[in-house]
Write a structure and sequence with these properties.
3 helices, 118 residues, single chain, 2 domains
Length: 118
């Protein structure tokens, strides 16, 4: 049996384009311009979670989130990632400065963690 996810506090973002989830019926859809609640979860560095209603939580990959919702920066260049591998600080997808193996105050992992490089 899997352990339940432990979520960091959620925050509000806006969808840049229509966001569809291909899960069980009814398939959740958020139109462009929708304000949605998202959160990160411990041990899930490559995903962000979207709350739909009171009881349903949908998983969204960080790479998909970049183009679909506000508040997420583009994937850094290879050169930047290489630099961060040897620095004491790097950034998260939400723009926070953290240690290479760390998380921002919103729970977002460093880009090195999010991309599975460390």
């Amino acid at each position: 049996m899997s352990k339940p996810l432990k979520f960091f506090p959620s925050f509000t973002v806006t969808t840049k384009r229509e966001l569809r989830f291909g899960v069980t019926e009814p398939k959740p859809t958020f139109p462009a311009g929708s304000r949605i609640q998202v959160a990160f979860a411990e041990g899930q560095d490559q995903h962000v979670f979207v709350r739909e209603g009171q009881h349903r939580i949908l998983r969204l990959s960080l790479t998909r989130a970049i183009g679909a919702i506000t508040g997420f920066s583009a994937v850094p260049s290879e050169r930047t990632l290489e630099k961060w591998m040897f620095d004491d600080v790097c950034k998260t997808p939400t723009g926070h400065r953290v240690e290479p193996d760390g998380h921002g105050p919103d729970g977002s992992p460093s880009w090195l963690r999010a991309l599975g490089l460390i």
